[in-house]
Design a protein that fits this description.
InterPro entries: ARM-type_fold, DOCK, DOCK_C_lobe_A, DOCKER_dom, DOCKER_Lobe_A
Number of helices: 12
Number of strands: 0
Protein name: DOCK9 protein
Pfam families: DHR-2_Lobe_A
Keywords: Guanine-nucleotide releasing factor
Family: Belongs to the DOCK family.
Distance between the termini: 40 Å
Length: about 240
């Protein structure tokens, strides 16, 4: 079924069903042994069908990054190690796929997933997660095949950006009982990603949810109007609308 799975760069109903099975294994509680086998199977899937994750729509790459990052915060060190290495493999494979030029697709989806996880997972950004970031950095520094490329420094930049987001989130936690200060911090973070529409949208959506939670519906509406304008501007630049 390989040719059918590769139709439209892997963005077809058959591949979607196959991928959803893999994703289901990650989303349900599994034993340590089962998870290690799932991670191994995912490596094979990424290796055999790279275009599914690095070409066309980013939905599958995004979903995979989100689930892997959750395991980077696991209480079990062995699972954190496996998850970190799988995430590194996803980035490294992306780098190879572009002819050793960049891994922009995975870089962006990892940052977006971290931003989403902050709101969804309690304790993200603690010691366990920081250790996983260090494992990823070490993998890049010790990979002899890409030692003389930009990859190690790009990985370092990614983990630095993640830590920046986590530090900003820690500040937000301190001001969680001060809605106005909390939204100001989120606005600053959204503004810092002005050059990255997807990330700016993520934080504007988060701001909107806080406004809705506090009953500030007009402010939430303004956030969504801003998001709509951001999407329209992006599509216009891409020539998809006029």
């Amino acid at each position: 079924l390989k040719n059918q799975l590769l139709t439209d760069h892997g963005h077809n109903p058959l591949m979607k069903k196959v991928f959803d099975v893999y994703l289901c294994f990650l989303q349900k509680n599994q034993s340590e042994t089962a998870l290690k086998n799932v991670f191994s199977a995912l490596r094979a899937l990424i290796y055999k069908f790279p275009s599914t994750f690095y070409e066309g729509r980013a939905d599958m790459c995004s979903a995979l990054c989100y689930e892997i990052l959750k395991y980077c915060n696991s209480k079990l060190s062995s699972i954190r190690n496996e998850a970190s290495q799988l995430l590194y493999f996803l980035m490294r494979n992306n780098f190879d796929y572009t002819g050793k030029k960049s891994f922009v697709r995975t870089h962006l989806q990892v940052i977006i997933s971290v931003s989403q996880l902050i709101a969804d997972v309690v304790g993200i950004g603690g010691t366990r997660f920081q250790q996983s970031l260090s494992i990823i950095n070490n993998c890049a520094n010790n990979d002899r095949n890409i030692k003389h490329t930009t990859f190690p420094s790009d990985v370092k930049d990614l983990t630095k950006r993640i830590r920046t987001v986590l530090m900003a989130t820690a500040q937000m936690k301190e001001h969680e009982n001060d809605p106005e200060m909390l939204v100001d911090l989120q606005y600053s973070l959204a503004k810092s990603y002005a050059s990255t529409p997807e990330l700016r949208k993520t934080w504007l959506d988060s701001m909107a949810r806080i406004h809705v939670k506090n009953g500030d519906l007009s402010e939430a509406a303004m956030c969504y109007v801003h998001v709509a304008a951001l999407v329209a501007e992006y599509l216009t630049r891409k020539g998809m609308i006029s």
